[in-house]
Specification:
With 428 residues, the chain is an alpha+beta fold. It has two domains: 116 residues, Serine Threonine Protein Phosphatase 5, Tetratricopeptide repeat (Alpha Horseshoe), CATH 1.25.40.10; 293 residues, TolB, C-terminal domain (Neuraminidase), CATH 2.120.10.30. Helix 2 runs antiparallel to helix 3 and helix 4 packs antiparallel against helix 5. The chain is globular, with a radius of gyration of 21 Å.
């Protein structure tokens, strides 16, 4: 295993995370992870372990860091410490391939490790409550965002490759609706429908997967509004070029439009400029975001940490507590539904679709229902809720022989686009 382990959906976060302030603990943790990878490639397992220990101290929520540190301990003859970390992963049904990882070879004959592997394997029993709504055979769309328009019963999905936004009608027909690719090497990522203003909001981010991307020619990311009827671009707002990534978008009940990324931004209703939002402490790697109905609390997924709740009036952020065996690390899409949070958790393996119950004060997740688990048909990114159902989009397995017209860096991202749907009252 490559010891800078990064799940496929995290590729989108690279741009956001590496741009964050160096003094943030998670940014520092990632610096130590990079140092650990250099040591690992040089065969310096002691150095690798030291750097991973520091990364784990700074961000204990990271499950890839826990796993890699366990590998370092195993390589360094520290079996008991390695097994303790692996047991934490197994308790959360997280499997990064421990059974066959050569870095764990020193543990393989230990009864405790054998029992752990057997217990984990038995717990990875797929939970399937979803059905396939549509498979798009075209390779290389690399879908990320999805939105639903209840008035027209249309779904919209965005491509990280060509920047196009496609509309899918109730009969399953799809066609290009709009796009941001003509404005530059932009990936179309976060999407949401603003029915009160008859707009489809889309995030366009300068990103390595976009056609025409040039690392030496950075471009500012932006928020784009398209007329829901015609697909005409009628609003566009860019952030300062020093802000190296925007991610997802949500509309508050009062019409303010919030945009996540390495800096949280807001477009106040009636204004014409994206403004940074003062949040304390500053979120890190903000991804999915959603409001509760009163609009007083904004929930965000800090992908490498957990779910944060921001008081909109004060900007104060607190992270939600959660059961030890139900970590909130690695959540991409995040949505409010009937008092619960719905999350697409693709930062751990196997991925899962979660319904998370909150306590009365919305300070903790008290129970987690798993709606979908270990479905190998796709790796999902984000979803859109329609009444009691969710539609979610992702990429199917990458082809074994990638078409030659795509650059090699795109090889892992060339799977077919898959859209699935599931009832939100399903799961265990």
């Amino acid at each position: 295993m490559n010891k800078k382990y990064m799940p496929l959906p995290l590729a989108l976060l690279v741009l956001l995370l590496t741009a964050a302030a160096a003094e943030h603990p998670v940014a520092e943790a990632q610096r130590h992870q990079r140092e650990a990878n250099i040591a690992y490639q040089a065969g310096d397992y002691e150095g690798f372990t030291r750097s991973m220990e520091r990364a784990h101290e700074l961000n204990p929520a990271s499950f890839p860091t826990k796993y890699n540190l366990a590998c370092g301990y195993a390589r360094s003859g520290r079996s008991a410490e390695a097994l303790e970390l692996l047991e934490q992963l197994a308790a959360a049904q997280v499997d990064f391939g421990m059974a066959d990882d050569p870095d764990l070879a020193s543990l393989r004959e230990l009864p405790r490790f054998q029992e752990l592997v057997a217990t984990l394997a038995a717990s990875i029993e797929p939970i399937n409550n979803s059905t396939v709504l549509l498979t798009i055979e075209q390779l290389g769309l690399s879908p990320e965002g999805i939105a639903f328009d209840a008035a027209s019963s249309r779904l919209f999905i965005g491509s990280m490759r060509n920047g196009n936004i496609y509309a899918i009608d109730a009969a399953g027909n799809y066609a290009k609706f709009a796009g941001v690719g003509h404005l530059g090497p932009y990936a179309a990522i976060g999407l949401t429908v603003d029915s009160d203003r008859n707009l489809l909001w889309a995030i366009g981010t300068w990103f390595f997967m976009a056609e025409g991307f040039d690392a030496e020619d950075p471009m500012p990311s932006g928020l784009f509004g398209f007329d829901l009827a015609s697909g005409e671009l009628v609003r566009q707002y860019f952030v300062d070029q020093s802000v190296e990534g925007l991610n997802d978008v949500a509309v508050a009940p009062d019409g303010d439009v919030y945009v996540s990324g390495n800096v949280l931004h807001v477009l106040r209703s009636g204004t014409d400029k994206l403004q940074p939002v003062a949040v304390s402490p500053a979120p890190f790697g903000a991804n999915g975001l959603t409001f509760e109905p009163q609009g007083e609390t904004l929930f965000i997924s800090s992908y490498p940490v957990g779910i944060g709740a921001i008081d909109v009036d004060t900007g104060k952020l607190r992270y939600l507590d959660a059961p030890a065996d139900r970590p909130l690390y690695g959540i991409d899409g995040l949505y409010w539904h009937e008092g619960d949070l719905i999350g697409i958790q693709n930062g751990i393996q196997p991925w899962r679709l979660l319904r998370m119950e909150l306590n009365h004060g919305m300070t903790a997740v008290t129970n987690v229902r798993v709606i979908e688990f270990a479905n190998q048909a796709l790796t999902p990114t984000t979803g859109a809720i329609d009444a009691g159902r969710i539609y979610y989009v992702g990429q199917g397995p990458a082809p074994e022989n990638p078409p030659s017209q795509f650059p090699g860096s795109m090889a892992p991202f060339l799977g077919k686009t898959v859209i699935m749907t599931a009832p939100l009252d399903a799961g265990t």
